[in-house]
Amino acid sequence: MQVPGMNDFYSVHNADPDKDGLIECALIPFPELVLYPNMVTPLFIGRERSVAALLAAQAHNETVIGVAQRNAAQTEPTIKDLFSIGTEMAMGRPMRMPDGSTSVLVQGRRRVEIVKVIQTVPYIRIKARPLTEPTERSREADALRRAVLTLFDKCVQLNPNLSEESYIYAMNIDEPGWLADLIASTLDLKIDERQNLLEMLDPIERLHRISVLLGRELEVLEIEEQINAQVQQEVNRGQREMYLREQMRAIQNELGEIDIFQQEINDLRERIDQANMPREVQDKAVKELSRLMMMPSMAPEVGIIRTYLDWLLELPWSKMSEDNLDIDNAAKVLDAEHFGLPKAKDRILEHIAVRKLAADKMRSPILCFVGPPGTGKTSLGRSIAKALGREFVRVSLGGVRDEAEIRGHRRTYIGALPGRIIQTLRRAGTVNPVFMLDEIDKLGHDFRGDPASALLEILDPEQNNAYSDHYLEVPYDLSKVMFITTANTLDPIPPALLDRLEVIEFNGYIEEEKLSIAEKFLIPRQLEEHGLSNKRIVFEEQALRTIIREYTYEAGVRNFEREIANVCRKLARKVASKEKYSRKVTPEVLSEFLGPAQFLQERLEDKDQVGLATGVAYTDGGGDVMVVEVMLLPGKGNITFTGQLGDVMQESAQAAYSYVRSQAKMFDIKPSAFDKNDIHVHLPEGAIPKEGPSAGITLATAMLSAMTGRPVHGKIALTGEITLRGKVLPVGGIKEKMMAAHRAGLRKILLPDRNRKDVVEIPRKILDEMEIRYVSEMSEVLEVMLAPAVTKPKPKSPSRSKRSPNKTKPSTSTARRPGTTPSTKRPVKTPAVRVQAAIATLEGLPSLPENS
Ligand code: ADP
C-alpha cells in the first residue's frame, strides 16, 4: 500500500519505558474509533487539544497514545471519559484539509494501559504501561486460526463491503493475536465490542471471540443472501413473463392476430364510455378496468373483475321506457285481459290519470295485491306493465331467509353475485319496469339477517334512489321502478313494511265468475296455445262446472286453467294422430281425459257428531272449511293439542275451555268431569288456518258438545272469536270464509254480529243461497248448534255407541263413540269434502230461527 506519508511511520520509534516500565506520551481521544496494533487508518482531527498533541508529537518525532471515548458525544473528554486501555501509535505527515481540519495516517503499535495524567493543557499528556501479550504458539491456536480464516473467507465472499485483499492479507498473518486484530478491524462492530477485543490480551481468547463474531456475521449474511436470491427470482420470473408476453404479442402482430386480452380490455373501455352510467359508477368501472390491465391475463382475479364489469355494464343505468299515459288505452288493455277486478283496475287507472297531470311530482305508489293463489294478481301486474308500456319483471321472495339473497354477496366471496333485485333489473333492461315482488308474506328471517329490512329500504321512496347491493358496491337508483307486491295474507307482513303498501284485495271467485273467466279468457287462450283455435271446440257449461266442483278445490282459477289445458292437450293429441274426437267437451268426456274426479263427493256420516264442529278459516289459499275435533279421555284435566294449531289458536282454545268450565253448571256438567278427564283438541289434515283467533266459538262448541254428549250440527259453519265471558267477537276474512263455506256446499253459517258490515262485499249469489245467523253471545251459538243429548255422556267408558237425534234407527256403520271421528269413509282430500258430502243429505236440518 503506497499512501502519502506512510513511510514517515517508520522513522518514529516506540516510546522508551522509564525505570518503572512506563512510557510518557501525548494522548488523543478517539470519539468513535478503536485502533488495533499494526492497523493503519486515517484520522481526522479537529479538536484543538488533539491538534496540539499531534503537533507536539510531530515536533519530537514521538508516538502518541489513542484511546476511545466511552461516550462519543463528549467534545472535551477528560481522562475519566476515556477507556483505560488504548493504543500507542505512530503518525505520518499531517495534512490540512479544505474544511480546516487535519488529516493524518496513523499506525497502531501496541496496547497500553493509562497509568496517570501528567498534564491536560495545551494537550493531554500521560504515563502508560505497554501491555505485552503471550506469544507462544499452540496446536489449538493453529486450528483456531484456520477455522477463523475459513469463516472469514466465506464472509468476504458474501459481503461486498469486504475486499478480497483483506482475506489475502489475513491469510498471510501467522500470529493469532494479529490476525484477530486484523479481522476485528474489518468487521462492522460496535465501539464497546471493539474496545472489548482491544482489552483482551490473550490472543487465543481474542481469536475465539472473533470466530463467534464471524459466525454471527455469516448467519446474517446468509439470510440476506437468501432474501436477495428470492427477490431476484421474483424479478426474473416477472421479467420472463413480460418478455414472453411481448414475444407473443409480436408473433400475433406478425400473424395478423390481435392480443385477445388486450382486445377485451379495449372492448370493455369502449362499452364503459358508451354505457351512460352515473359518474360514480363510471369512475368505479374505470378503476376496475385499470386494475384489470395491470394483471397478467391468467391471474385468477381477472375473471372476477371481468364478471363484475359485465354486471356494471349490463345493468340499466339510464335506459327508460316511455310511459303511455292514455287512460282509455289502459282501460282497454286491463279489460281485455281480465274479468272483474274492478277495484284493482280503477286504482291503476287513477294512478295513470294522476301521473298524466302531475307528471313526476308523484311518487310511484307501492301496491300490494293480496288474495288467494290464482286470482289474477300476477297476470294483472303484467297487464299494468303492458298498459303503461313498461317492461314487466317479477321475483319471488317466498322462503328467502338470507338478506344476502336480496342484497347480494360481497365480491370477496367465491362465486359472489348481486342480489335478486339487481339480477331482476338486469333482466328488465330498463330503469323503470313494473317490478313484482311476489309472496312478501312468505319472507323468513334467521341468523343471516332479516330480508324484510332490505325490502323496507327497497320500497322506501326516501332511500331507494341509492339502493346498496353488496356485490355492486355502487348505489343503484330504484326510484323509477313501479313496485307491486303480492301476498296471500297480510298477517305475516311486518307492520313497518305493511305501512308502506297500498293494499288491494283480490278475492276468490264464485262458480259463476269462474265460468265467465273460463269462457272469455282461459279456454280461448288454452285452445290457442294448443293449436286448436280453428277446430271449433266447445266446452259445455256442465263440463266446466264439473271441473270446478270435482277436479279443483280452490278460490282462484289456477288449477281450473290447468285442467282446461289438460283437456286441450288430450284433444290436441287426438287431432294430431287423426283419431276421432268430439268437438263438444261434455262431463262424460272429462273422466276419459282427466281420470276420476279428485274431489269426489263422498257420502259420509249423515248425522251430527258429538265433539265435532265445522269452522271456516282464512288460509293462504283463500278460505277453507276446518273441522275441529274434541275428545274426552280419562285423565287429570289437561288439554292436548294436535294438528295445525298455532300459538294463537291454542290460546283461543284455552279461552274456550275456561268459558266451558264456567258454564258447567248451566249445562249440567259435574265439576269432577273436568278434573277426571283430559281434553284432546285436534284439527285433522286439510285446511291449514292462518294464525288467528277466529276459531274460538267453533272450539267452545266442540268442547261443550264433548262434555255434554250433545251432538253438533255439522252442516252449520262457524266463525267468531270468544271472550272468557262468552261474548262473540268479530273476525276477519268474512268474504273468503263465506265463499269457502259455499264452495264446500254448506248453506248455513253463524257470523259474529259485528261482522254484519262485511257482508256487503259478498257476491249476491252467495248471499241468496246462504242463510246467515248473526250472534253476539256464545249462548246463542249453543242454542243453534247443540242438539239435545240422546244419552248421557260416559267419557270414561267411551265404547258406548251414540245415536243421532235426527235418525231413530241406529246403523252399525255409523255408530260412533262419543266425541270420536268416523274412522272410515274419510274425505279424499280435505275435510271440507266431508262436510260437502254431508250436505247432500241436509234436508233433515232444522231451519235456523230468524235472527233480528
Ligand atoms: P296469482 O298471481 O293471483 O296467483 P295468476 O295471475 O297467476 O294468479 O292467475 C292464474 C291464472 O288465472 C292466469 O292465467 C290468469 O290469467 C288467470 N286469471 C285469474 N284471474 C283472472 C281474471 N279475473 N280474468 C282473467 N284471467 C284471470
Please give a structural write-up.
The chain is an alpha/beta fold. It has 27 helices and 25 strands. Strands 1-3-4-6-7 form a 5-stranded mixed beta barrel. A 5-stranded parallel beta sheet has the order 9-10-13-8-14, with helices on both faces. Strands 17-18-20-19 form a 4-stranded mixed beta sheet, sandwiched between helices. Strand 11 (467-468) and strand 12 (475-476) form a beta hairpin. The radius of gyration is 52 Å and the shape is elongated. Mean pLDDT is 82; it is low at 600-605 and 793-852. The structure holds adenosine-5'-diphosphate. The site of adenosine-5'-diphosphate (ADP) has 17 residues, from helix 12, helix 17 and helix 19.
Any key phrases for this structure?
852 residues; alpha/beta; 5-stranded parallel sheet; elongated; binds adenosine-5'-diphosphate
Number of helices: 27
Strand content: 15-25%
C-alpha Rg, in Å?
52 Å
Q: How far apart lie the N and C ends?
A: 134 Å
How are the strands of the biggest sheet laid out side by side? 1-3-4-6-7
Biggest beta-sheet profile: 5 strands, mixed, barrel
Structural class assignment: alpha/beta
List the helices and strands and how they pair.
Layout: E1 23-30, E2 40-45, H1 48-60, E3 64-68, E4 85-91, E5 95-96, E6 102-119, E7 124-130, H2 139-158, H3 164-171, H4 176-186, H5 191-199, H6 203-255, H7 260-274, H8 279-294, H9 300-314, H10 327-337, H11 342-358, E8 367-370, H12 377-388, E9 392-396, H13 403-407, H14 420-428, E10 434-438, H15 451-459, E11 467-468, E12 475-476, E13 482-487, H16 495-498, E14 502-505, H17 511-529, E15 538-539, H18 541-551, H19 558-576, E16 584-585, H20 587-594, E17 612-619, E18 622-634, E19 639-643, H21 647-662, H22 671-676, E20 677-683, H23 696-708, E21 716-718, E22 721-722, E23 728-729, H24 734-743, E24 748-752, H25 764-769, E25 771-775, H26 778-785, H27 831-839
Parallel strand pairs: 1-3, 8-13, 8-14, 9-10, 10-13, 15-16, 19-20, 21-24, 24-25
Antiparallel strand pairs: 1-7, 2-6, 3-4, 4-6, 5-6, 6-7, 11-12, 17-18, 18-20, 22-23
The protein binds adenosine-5'-diphosphate (ADP).
The site of adenosine-5'-diphosphate (ADP) has 17 residues, from α12, α17 and α19.
